[in-house]
Amino acid sequence: MKRAITALPGAASSRPVLSAMSLATCLALACAPSQEATRVELPVVVDGRGLVDATTDLGWTIRLDTARIATGDLEFTIQGEMHALARLWDLLVPPAVAHPGHYAGGDVTGALPGSFVLDWLAGDGDELGRAELLTGNYHGCNIAFRRADELPADDPLAGHTAQFSGTASKDGQDLPFAAILDLDVGAAVIGAPFDLDIDEGSTDPLGVQLRLHDDTSGAALFDGVDFAALDPGDGTAVSIGPGDPAHNLVRRALQSHVFYTVAPL
């Protein structure tokens, strides 16, 4: 299988080494309740299970042949006031590796730093790396976006954030399409669902999923895009790119947490 996940050279290691004595000191400094919080390492992989055909608000059924997104750090969050755990995380993991904080109702107590290209079709099952997490009841994942500047110039994703291609079908009409998306510097998904208790015995890999449709809200990733109106009519694929109104619709949706899930495999 072609490997479709790229970690940039020089990315900070996600596995700092601590001696037993330094770990004990960190636990003591973090105050008594945090003594129960220990650190675990879990593999993080691309999980294509959620990428199934979906129908948009305009009645187009979307089937993808390509789904790639360039991402930066992944952060895992615990809900509630967990400041003692956040201080412990700061001691366990150097600030250059991870930055604990309070986002979307949760403290960041786990991270997988780096730069990656997630490919949910050709790279389904590939491992991104091993995340470090403090034990606890997790509720969210933050995903940073970036531009894939490291890719060869002839790669359609080079210099961009996301690449999708596939077919949009409606009323017997099948329209191939290709979409290239650019997200702003600093853009991120905040609070993607990640509902899992992690303890000292946890070993299951964490699968990062992309979804075309959110069953709870009814929203679809390509809502609002009228593929018939974009059809050039010459037999070539519908093109969605920077500057197009359809590009703005999809890029906004791509930043919504409802289209992502992290779940154990």
Textual characterization of the structure:
The chain is mainly beta and 265 residues long. The chain is built from four helices and 14 strands. It has helices spanning 20-29, 83-92, 227-230, 245-254, and strands at 39-47, 54-55, 61-79, 102-103, 106-112, 116-119, 127-134, 136-145, 162-170, 173-181, 188-198, 206-210, 238-240, 260-264. Strands 1, 2, 3, 4, 5, 6, 7, 8, 9, 10, 11, 12, 13 and 14 form a 14-stranded mixed sheet that branches. The radius of gyration is 20 Å and the shape is elongated. Residues 1-34 and 81-105 have low confidence and may be disordered.
At a glance:
Helix content is 13%, strand content 39%. It is mostly beta strands and 265 residues long.
Q: Report the radius of gyration as a whole number of Å.
A: 20 Å
The helical percent reads 10-25%
Backbone structural class? mainly beta
Distance between the termini: 20 Å
Beta-strand level of the residues, as a percent range?
35-45%
- What summary fits the major beta sheet? 14 strands, mixed
C-alpha geometry: elongated
What is the count of DSSP helices, taking H or I runs of 4+ residues? Answer: 4
Overall mean pLDDT stands at 84
Ranges where pLDDT stays below 50 over 5 or more residues in a row are 1-34, 81-105
Order of helices and strands: HEEEHEEEEEEEEEHEHE
Instruction: Tell me how many strands there are.
Output: 14
Topology:
Elements: H1 20-29, E1 39-47, E2 54-55, E3 61-79, H2 83-92, E4 102-103, E5 106-112, E6 116-119, E7 127-134, E8 136-145, E9 162-170, E10 173-181, E11 188-198, E12 206-210, H3 227-230, E13 238-240, H4 245-254, E14 260-264
Parallel strand pairs: 1-12, 10-13
Antiparallel strand pairs: 1-7, 2-3, 3-5, 3-6, 3-8, 3-9, 4-5, 5-7, 8-11, 9-10, 12-14
